[in-house]
Amino acid sequence: xxxxxxxxxxIMASALTVPLTDNGHDVRLVGTHLDRxxxxxxxxxxxxxxxxxKLSPSVxxxxxxxxxxxxxGAEIAMSGVNSFGxxxxxxxxxxxxxxxxHVLAVTKGMDANDQGDLRILPEVLMEQVPDxxxxxxxxxxxxxxxxxxxxxxxRHTCVVFSGKEQSVLDHxxxxxxxxxxxxxxxxxxxxxxxxxxxxxxxxxxxxxxEGVLEAQGEANSRYRAHNYEAVLFAQGSTEIGHMLRLxxxxxxxxxxxxxxxDMYVTAAGGxxxxxxxxxxxxxxxxxxxxxxxxDVTLEGAAAIRVIGGALPKLTERGVIAPSDxxxxxxxxxxxxxxxxxxxxxxxxxxxxxxxxxxxEGAPQQAR
Amino acid sequence: xxxxxxxxxxIMASALTVPLTDNGHDVRLVGTHLDRxxxxxxxxxxxxxxxxxKLSPSVxxxxxxxxxxxxxGAEIAMSGVNSFGxxxxxxxxxxxxxxxxHVLAVTKGMDANDQGDLRILPEVLMEQVPDxxxxxxxxxxxxxxxxxxxxxxxRHTCVVFSGKEQSVLDHxxxxxxxxxxxxxxxxxxxxxxxxxxxxxxxxxxxxxxEGVLEAQGEANSRYRAHNYEAVLFAQGSTEIGHMLRLxxxxxxxxxxxxxxxDMYVTAAGGxxxxxxxxxxxxxxxxxxxxxxxxDVTLEGAAAIRVIGGALPKLTERGVIAPSDxxxxxxxxxxxxxxxxxxxxxxxxxxxxxxxxxxxEGAPQQAR
Lengths: 367, 367
Hints:
Two copies of one chain form a homodimer. The first copy, chain A, is an alpha/beta fold. The first copy, chain A, contains 18 helices and twelve strands.
């Protein structure tokens, strides 16, 4: 039996208590300052209110002020916060981590500096941890197609535990693996994290298609816009592959669970797709965000602002060509510059050969 | 203006008359012996009954007995039949083709010989054409995510014209390209055709998930089985990549429009997914086919029988390892051997590391 302490009681972190308690581990779930009501609910009834699932009675809920107690003696220290909370989590870790602990993060996103250099979020997570302690814990992350609620109700789920040390990954994956929660491992840490961040961006774009249909008065048409969705999916897959080559990831990562697998599940629904649909109807990003509620966090949009915002800088430095990543650049025009959506069809897949009617000045209907 | 003669008036071939007539070309649509009612309807009303779309009045419909007249003087000769009709189409071609014509096929599938050697369908299509004529026409095909009805109502669609001669592909693509029908080209003929065939198989498997939910009494649950679907999608993508390496295709083909793009659109609906759902509920393939109607053609199932049936032979010859293509082998157990579905989760992605509860003899719920 292992002891696992989790910082953050969001739906993903809380869902992961299910395979852990199925395996008989000691699980301590610590709410952030935003999770007080969740922890209160679990303490009272065992039910996670956002998941609407009753957690095992062996999960021990803690409010943030008791975090140090919860992490004491833990073997595995999980970061369960989302990308908006990763800097905060890094500030908490110095007082929570002990040498020998294995850190495991579920956060999906990327970070960029002023020069446009991109880095993966585990690097942000370890930033506030003093060098000496940082090198005496291990850093790994979970990626792959995994809707939290489905993990919580034990639907078959296949994920990848990623990090630099194979022996650590073997140990962590054995701790989580059940008959429903299937775990692979990968030492392509950069590749896995890049996929996890970028798939959110492209899954958001898949949502455009339904919105465009609505705007055209075709919402009830027999014929949907699946061809449209598939193009954005395939271009997303192509751009993820390109970014992996650029940052040193392995291409297999892009067309397995972390890349197309996770993009598929993210495109199947959720907030990213909903904001995409609203943008497809003709709203700007600001208007769409207003419509969903300003307090709704949109990780896909945030990742677009980071990654899309880095592209012009990388282009200026000659790291990439102006024609690279056309979909991510179009997404950045929407999320970063608040422009209306224009899908640059002919710039996809290395550029459509210029000939035929489309090149002869016929009016374009870009969206 | 070019003249295009099309053999077969199914939905895909007929939908392709839309970009062609939008570009002002002369289009002659020839029904097979199975398409008599379709041609009669188009002659009378212009409406393709299965598409439920009115074709341009400039499309000229022909019954099969007038095929030679329709093909006379055509520059582009299309094969619009599905994989069940490709041998028949090859028998028709010797009397229809003239030297200098460009053949363009829409058929998706593969063929295998007794040794398990796989070949692409354009090779079957050219088989009955005498050598002399065969070498004096060109052979190309259309692949990529393209639901016929969406092409017919001018939804944005991106496809790839594939063949061996770049200049021919440039010419053909310019003939079809419009502001909604975007066309790329690829000389990775084998890679494109392999993707087109295999994506049908894996898209069918994505349908299992909903059926399994139904069988578990979870059809109305808040939590679907998208994680399950995503695994089959990602494993499908991985196996397509493997087959491309084996047959000499380019890996980019697998993660662009022909591979994951087309698999995405195929998984979004249609007969392949419906038969998958029925199998997920616990039916055998025979029972599922009976339920859908024995006269319903299932190209995904047919491709599984061809490709999955070739794998044991390729394994025996040492071309592939017994652990390669675990999902296609599982699909073949269902479609070829009429067994009940068992998803071999732990054999995916090179094999799940064996440790933790799943390996300790705990009862498995494979489906």
